[in-house]
């Protein structure tokens, strides 16, 4: 039985937790949302790295066997330092531009991500490894995270803002769209409404959880006899709102898991 920490700047990482509960429902989870400081994508690199490391140390102190940094921005800015500091497996996330390049038929790929992710060395180093005949239309999704954090993923306000962000991608004729922030899978319905069913959406949640499973398998933990493990939701802002958003945004049945919600109070 594993205790897995899942950390994000807010509720975006719920898309990763959702997939983890589908593939590994027997394990226990602590989901940590730093919603008081969301979104990370508009903060400095140094602040993101320092805060991300502090929160991962917190999760490790709670006995987590592995941690998923379920935030593209935090992964880009802090994953190297976190791995150097903590001795447990640390799984990061990154925009799925490589599978997008492989799947695109017309070699025009849209990338919707935060400004910090698009400017990060990690993202641009990955971009440099990909075929030059593939055109990437990079677009910051400024404002979208705050709307999702406010429970407005399906609102008219989100649809209007999303339409503005997707316009350059649509005008370029992209046949593939990378959801480069873990918040953005919760906009699938709105994206489909704007772009239709023909565009391929790339979300790396499944690949991230498969990597988590591989890492857990190497730890040789005691087997769990329960079918559904516990889920503890921890928020730096409002634990009851986090739990409510989890129930609204996630597709798994959280009633199958013993669930707790707590406020984050002991991290500087």
What do these coordinates show?
This protein is an alpha/beta fold and 268 residues long. The chain folds into 2 domains: 3-93 and 205-263, Rossmann fold (3-Layer(aba) Sandwich); 97-202, Rossmann fold (3-Layer(aba) Sandwich), CATH 3.40.50. The protein has 11 helices and 10 strands. A 6-stranded parallel sheet has the order 4-3-1-2-9-10, sandwiched between helices. Helix 11 (239-249) links the parallel strand 9 and strand 10. The longest helix has 17 residues, at 45-61. The radius of gyration is 18 Å and the shape is globular. The protein starts with a strand and ends in a 5-residue tail after the last strand.
How do the strands and helices of this protein lay out in sequence?
Blueprint: E1 3-8, H1 14-23, E2 28-33, H2 45-61, E3 66-69, H3 72-85, E4 90-91, H4 97-103, E5 108-113, H5 115-119, H6 121-128, E6 135-140, H7 144-149, H8 156-171, E7 176-179, H9 188-195, E8 200-202, H10 205-217, E9 231-235, H11 239-249, E10 259-263
Parallel strand pairs: 1-2, 1-3, 2-9, 3-4, 5-6, 5-7, 7-8, 9-10
């Amino acid at each position: 039985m594993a205790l897995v920490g899942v950390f994000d700047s807010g509720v975006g990482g719920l898309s990763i937790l959702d997939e983890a509960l589908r593939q590994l429902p027997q394990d226990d989870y602590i989901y940590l949302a730093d919603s008081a400081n969301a979104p990370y994508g508009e903060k400095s690199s140094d602040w993101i790295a320092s805060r991300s490391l502090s929160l991962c140390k917190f999760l490790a102190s709670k006995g987590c066997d592995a941690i998923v940094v379920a935030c593209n921005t935090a992964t880009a800015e802090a994953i190297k330092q976190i791995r150097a500091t903590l001795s447990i497996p640390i799984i990061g996330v990154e925009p799925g531009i490589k599978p997008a390049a492989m799947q695109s038929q017309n070699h025009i790929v849209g990338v919707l991500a935060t400004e910090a992710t698009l400017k990060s060395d990690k993202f641009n180093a990955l971009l440099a490894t990909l075929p030059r005949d593939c055109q990437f239309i990079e677009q910051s999704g400024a404002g979208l995270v705050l709307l999702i954090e406010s429970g407005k993923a399906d609102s008219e306000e989100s649809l209007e803002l999303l339409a503005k962000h997707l316009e350059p991608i649509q005008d370029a004729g992209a046949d593939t769209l990378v959801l480069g922030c873990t918040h953005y899978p919760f906009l699938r319905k709105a994206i489909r409404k704007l772009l239709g069913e023909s565009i391929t959406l790339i979300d790396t949640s499944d690949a991230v959880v498969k990597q988590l499973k591989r890492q857990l398998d190497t730890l040789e933990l005691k087997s769990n006899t329960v079918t559904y493990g516990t889920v503890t939701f921890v928020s730096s802002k409002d634990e009851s709102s986090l739990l409510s958003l989890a129930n609204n945004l996630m597709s798994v049945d959280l009633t199958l898991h013993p669930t707790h919600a707590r406020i984050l109070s002991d991290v500087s």
